[in-house]
């Protein structure tokens, strides 16, 4: 009988759950996920009603290819769980001549996606909700849309349990101690309990420095705000008539079933550095500036009620690329960080990539771009224990 290693995954966000799902799908059986709170808790980086799935990454071809692969995996999870995880809404990109908006459209077309360039008059006729002003590069990709984030997490949880995995909530890991290649890895929980594993995956989002602080990775934790507007007519701002949109750093979503009839919009500009365990403190000035910018782009928001503001924390790398790697000198411990506010849509694919690191198999996507070594001037070698 082939030995099945005990694998523990720390963190039950989209990456941790996706990794468990991938490993179980690869034939692993002893897979356990530890979550410090509960799946989809309010402060989790993966929590929220929705996440944008867009293919537009400027002149970068690497990420759009990954988005396409990941969407196929989300669709497969939909079929398995019979849960609606994704709603195509189309994505309108508002850019200017000289930026990479048109190049992003060309890349989408090369990938076989339905992306088109709109004239200013055509855009006004089709999407009169926007004040396009000086934007002269307008594109529309019919295949972008909304991932229903909280439902995605529930679907992954159900799939993991259905495949025989374990999920232990309210299990906060305080330290990870590898004691040599021929001995188990010890995990100390804040409850005082100690667990052992032969492989460990660390996917704890903005809490990354708590367990991996010894690496001194240049990951900044930033406070971000999501704005929800009420009082807009679904007949003008619902799915089918109003697209998801991107404009420089602004982005937003149409009203859809399950959204409380709110329109969600935000700024992707990175906020101030924060402690993820600190109580959120709303920065009224930042929120007001984002609201004004959104109102300039979508004038109807001037008469809408700002019904709710949600805060979240990004874990941001200097180049905004992910870090997917094993610890220096300890290949049995794999980790993911630096999702930089755009990682959720890649969840199932990131899970498979981390699974390949755990099992030593060939990844579907080359991992060179995501290796820790690119920040060698920042980090140090892994100490004997991780805490």
Radius of gyration: 21 Å
Poorly predicted sequence stretches spanning 5 or more consecutive residues: none
Overall spatial form? globular
* Count of beta strands: 20
- Mean pLDDT over the full residue set: 95
Instruction: Work out the helicity level.
Output: 25-40%
Work out the strand percent.
25-35%
CATH homology superfamily of the largest domain: FAD/NAD(P)-binding domain
CATH architecture assignment of the largest domain: 3-Layer(bba) Sandwich
Structural class: alpha+beta
Head-to-tail CA distance between termini: 35 Å
Count of individual domains: 3
The H-and-E topology, N to C, reads as: EHEEHEEHEHEEHEEEEEHEHEEEHEEEH
In words, what does this structure look like?
- The chain is α+β, with helices and mostly antiparallel strands.
- It has 3 domains: 7-46 and 150-216 and 319-375, FAD/NAD(P)-binding domain (3-Layer(bba) Sandwich), CATH 3.50.50.60; 53-146, D-Amino Acid Oxidase, subunit A, domain 2 (D-Amino Acid Oxidase, Chain A, domain 2), CATH 3.30.9.10; 220-316, D-Amino Acid Oxidase, Chain A, domain 2.
- 26% of the residues lie in helices and 26% in strands.
- It contains 9 helices and 20 strands.
- It has helices at 14-25, 62-81, 101-110, 120-126, 149-162, 208-212, 234-237, 284-297, 347-359, and strands at 7-10, 31-34, 51-53, 86-88, 91-95, 115-118, 137-141, 145-147, 166-168, 173-178, 185-189, 194-197, 199-202, 220-230, 244-247, 250-252, 263-267, 305-316, 323-327, 330-337.
- Strands 6-7-5-15-16-17-14-18 form an 8-stranded mixed beta sheet, sandwiched between helices.
- Helix 1 (14-25) crosses helix 9, helix 2 crosses helix 5 and helix 2 crosses helix 9.
- The radius of gyration is 21 Å and the shape is globular.
- The mean pLDDT is 95.
